[in-house]
Amino acid sequence: QWLQKMVIKQVKKFLPELAEADLNIQRTEKGKPFIVYGDSGKAVSAVHVSVSHSGGYWACVVSDRVCGLDLQEMRPAAAERLAERFFTPQEGRYIKEAGPSGFYELWTRWEALAKYTGLGFFGMSGGRPVLVDSEGRPAEQVIWDGKPVVFQKLQAPEGFMAVWCYEEAKEGEM
After folding, report:
1. What three-state secondary structure class fits 67?
2. If you average pLDDT over residues 41-66, what whole number do you get?
3. Average pLDDT in the 86-110 region?
């Protein structure tokens, strides 16, 4: 409940003309949050949100584009074992070279993209794009459903990593 109130406050900053009392969060069947205004149940198409929490912190992105956000506490993990299970061979090579921070660079991209699509982490496991570029570095952009999706690393507390992704603007859009 408190998180919903905090997200609504962030949306209100983005759309000050809407009455805060009339903003509500609903979720798709897969859990992707969206904002509705009033009792109509219709989504406010001008605003998109993504929320993530980890290790006592939470983050929220409010955008005029479809977006996804992931915040992860970088805990010691069996990165190589998880890399073999969840990542492509190209991604696994990057993780092996970069170590735990490389694992979280790709993991946060995957989670953010899963939230962007609304499919969730396991809903994407079979058909997601490769998250490293042709030079073996974390991809700054991938194509999803024919659209370019841009990744951007965010400032996060020490010991955490945060990445958000959003649909790239079409030519002439701001």
Report:
1. strand
2. 83
3. 91
